[in-house]
Amino acid sequence: MMVLLTVAGALTLASAADSFSPAKPKLATRDDEPIRRWRANRFGLFIHWGLYAVAGGEWRGKEIPSAAEWLQSSGKIPAAEYASLARQFNPTHYDPAAWARMAREMGVRYVTITTKHHEGFCLWDSEFTDFDIVATPHGRDLLGPLVKALTAEGVDVHFYYSILDWHHPDYRSAILTDDDRLAYDRYFEFMKNQLRELLTRYPQVRALWFDGQWDSSYCENPEYARRLEEFLREIKPGIIMNNRIGAGLIGNIDHDATGRPFGDYNAGFERLLPHAGSVPLYDWEAGMTLPENQWGYRKVWSGHVKTAPELARMLIQCASQGGNFMVNFGPKPDGTFRDEEQAVARGLGQWMKQNSEAICGTRGSTLGKPRWGFVTERVAKEGSRTLYLHVLSKPAGKEIRLPLTLAQVRNCRLLSAPNRPWPFRADGEQRVVIGLPDKLDPIATVIAVELNQ
Ligand code: GLC
Prior knowledge:
Layout: E1 3-5, E2 26-28, H1 33-41, E3 43-47, H2 52-55, E4 58-59, E5 62-63, H3 71-74, H4 79-83, H5 96-106, E6 110-116, H6 143-152, E7 156-162, H7 178-201, E8 207-211, H8 216-219, H9 222-235, E9 240-241, E10 266-270, E11 284-288, H10 308-320, E12 324-329, H11 339-355, E13 363-364, E14 373-379, E15 385-391, E16 399-402, E17 409-414, E18 417-421, E19 424-426, E20 432-435, E21 445-451
Parallel strand pairs: 3-6, 3-12, 6-7, 7-8, 8-9, 10-11, 11-12
Antiparallel strand pairs: 1-2, 4-5, 13-14, 14-15, 15-21, 16-20, 17-18, 17-21, 19-20
Helix pairs in contact: 5-6, 5-11, 7-9, 10-11
The structure holds alpha-D-glucopyranose (GLC).
Alpha-D-glucopyranose is lined by residues 48, 67, 69, 211, 270, 287, 295.
């Protein structure tokens, strides 16, 4: 059943100023405690780590174009040959406590790590395959220590799992014969076993992030998706799943023939954000790479590499549209993060340290998109409401005009100087005017506007 969440509505604002248009109500597939927590987290770190990190986008001294984690496929490397990378995977500098500290200091509330990407290699010691971390010089579980360290830092754990598998002998990209069907059924059991293993061995995991659902074997046979979803909800009631568990294309939440959606939210915003000011219909999450299209580690990056301010502004935009935002890092094979990623973690962390109140636990703006930036809002349990004005650029006149009456505003404060009140005044009956500091934060200056009920 779909629940209609009236995100818009309750605000009794005076007539909208020219730069605002009110947001539309949003649909949700569920509205229980786990999804509320998922929503409130807002900001996550995606981590792509696997054997592709060893190769770093090169094979036998040659650069293979395309995404680094796609190396096996784009380099047309036979599975057995590719698998030999396992003998070189030895992350001697892997320090899960340092990863978890970095995540917390960066301001993320959850980490989504690839337990198994399309290459089929598993970062944990799986009972159901030998193609896992035990076959490497490292020789022991990578996931468990990370799950523990993240949990100790108060960061939620989400697991990525690829349905597509280039290594497993029973995997089929298409089911053309009876033998294919039997093989795929065996693969499906393998997948279920591995997911049960992950959910029971690491009970802290709160969400599963599926990918690689586009091969016809899976997406033309939607009963697999539905069976998998039901199986997982039975093992772990409350688990959150992205819509890529579904049998359709990415980009929209997918429904079965009866109109029931797959998964809990739309993870179709891959390296893109929804049109500024629009509100996607369902809960949603965007994932963003630093360079153009590289999720796993690639030695040489080309083209534009996004900076902390750019990514922070994307995070703000997502929050203002009621969505989550994940920045992606691809750790090096030795277990450390490249300089660009460390710089991004520091830059985002600095801004989040002062401003996370305006991101985490907020919802999308019911005021729409003003020209000078974005708005998020927080509704406290007792019903009081705070608007967060994320000012990215100074409007003409150098003041913010809000479609509120003076009586509606209890107080204002700058999140960068929270201990003193920030002045505001009325301009006629229907406008509150708020001045800006001389110098804006290079990412966004945030003004909290607490409203009277
Ligand atoms: C794509 C890619 C994959 C990456 C994912 C992240 O579907 O196949 O390499 O993990 O997107 O969104």
